[in-house]
Design a protein that fits this description.
The protein is of the alpha/beta class. The strands form four sheets. Strands 13-12-11-14-15-19-16 form a seven-stranded mixed β-sheet, sandwiched between helices. A five-stranded parallel β-sheet has the order 3-2-4-1-5, sandwiched between helices. Strand 8 and strand 9 form a beta hairpin. 38% of the residues are buried. The mean pLDDT is 89.
């Protein structure tokens, strides 16, 4: 196994005792040893150069790839390097023949073993590096889940956040594991509510077990109220129209483009309803982009991506779509539809909403052979007028659906 010029990614398991003697031999024969400070401290007596991986880990790994062209390098990883670990980063920076990954036990596997819980029954999550976005709907929708937490949001903090987002989760049976495999190991069981008030120092894991009794899954419903979303001066697709648009999109897994996204409401609800759908929302206004990001974080979505800039400039940077919604585009609407249609997978569809007569006219004269249908949606809402109630009509919305065959 020892190669002259090579990178060894060493999964260190839950403690130094988890590392087999054969792997320790590899470590003792490298020229450069890299890893977090805690892991490097486990190997103080060998003669090699040590490089700490910190906030600029990606840049450091690039340097290690260069070093490995002339000497043997080992990178230490906690748990297993292929579970939300450093091996995934390395795979993006070099080719497979230049490195070897040595597996080991993860903290969640060790915790399951201590609790005699088959971990094949759990969905696994990590909130590391998510910029504050917690996929709380996915976590709570799973029958059982295990979540790796970090210094910014501990297992206790995550439990508190889950209850805040969905109060019914307070009854969920849960386990918190801290510093699994170390002398300071701590395991606590109880309901999420009971555990949310505990102290939680160190490296922590939250485990959610099967719900007891009748517990509703926190599904993102169709047609959330406008008030749920941060939006600008009423510039939002209202719930009833949103529901019709989503029905016309014919959601399935794959890639969705939400172009001229505004507050992002259509793409956000699509991402929440279809877990296998990756949504890419493009919006030019920086203020509206901030609103989209805030709305995505509030709904706990990790399959929604927000892109700032001109639609026609950004399309080439996106993965090819299976479905496209266009809620904005202005004078460029025809060019946007043509570009989107060229990129669209066979069998995919484009749904466009139009409010102005000019946009309706532009849509009537583009891609005529691919136009499946045009519908008009009119909504009227009740409004008090003294002691009486009137129905006040909103702007008529025309919805165009195009299909690529």
């Amino acid at each position: 196994m020892n190669k002259k010029n090579h990178i060894y990614v060493i999964s260190c398991g839950i403690s130094v005792d988890s590392i087999p003697a054969s792997v320790k031999t590899i470590i003792n024969n490298v020229a450069v040893l890299a890893g977090g400070k805690r892991l490097l401290a486990m190997f103080n007596d060998a003669d090699y150069k040590k490089i700490a991986l910190g906030a600029n880990a990606v840049e450091t790994i690039k340097e290690l790839v260069v070093l490995a062209k002339r000497q043997r390098v080992a990178i230490l990883a906690s748990g297993d390097a292929l579970f939300h670990g450093i091996a995934g980063t390395l795979a993006k920076l070099t080719t497979a023949e230049h490195y070897t990954v040595i597996p080991n036990i993860t903290a969640f596997q060790a915790l399951c073993a201590k609790l005699k819980q088959p971990w094949s029954d759990f969905e696994l999550f990590s909130i590391h590096g998510r910029n504050g976005v917690v996929p709380w709907r996915k976590i709570l929708a799973a029958e059982q889940s295990i979540i790796y937490c970090d210094n910014c949001l501990s297992a206790v903090g995550l439990g508190t956040e889950l209850i805040k987002k969905y109060p019914e989760a307070a009854r969920r049976p849960a386990v918190i594991g801290v510093n699994i495999g170390l002398d300071s190991e701590m395991i606590k069981c109880g309901t999420l509510q009971e555990l949310a008030g505990d102290d939680c120092p160190g490296l922590s894991i939250l485990m959610l077990l099967k719900p007891t009794g009748r517990t509703q899954e926190p599904v993102l419903p169709l047609g959330l109220d406008d008030a749920i979303y941060a939006h600008e001066n009423g510039l939002i697709t209202h719930p009833e129209t949103r529901a019709v648009i989503i029905a016309k999109l014919g959601l399935r897994g794959g890639v969705m483009w939400d172009l001229g996204a505004g507050s992002g409401s259509v793409g956000i609800e699509c991402a929440g309803m279809c877990r296998n759908l990756a949504v890419y929302a493009v919006e030019q206004s920086p203020a509206r982009v901030e609103q989209i990001i805030s709305n995505v974080a509030a709904e706990g979505l990790d399959n929604h991506h927000t892109i700032t800039g001109d639609i026609l400039v950004k399309l080439d940077q996106l993965p090819e779509p299976d479905v496209v919604f266009i809620g904005g585009g202005g004078k460029n609407i025809q060019a946007i539809i043509r570009r989107a249609f060229d990129c669209l997978h066979i069998g995919g569809r484009i749904v466009v909403s139009a409010v102005t007569l000019e946009t309706v006219a532009a849509l009537n004269s583009v891609l005529k052979d691919e136009l499946r249908e045009v519908i008009s949606v009119g909504i009227a809402r009740s409004k008090a007028a003294g002691s009486l109630t009137l129905m006040k009509s909103e702007n008529q919305i025309t919805i165009f659906t195009y299909i690529k065959r």
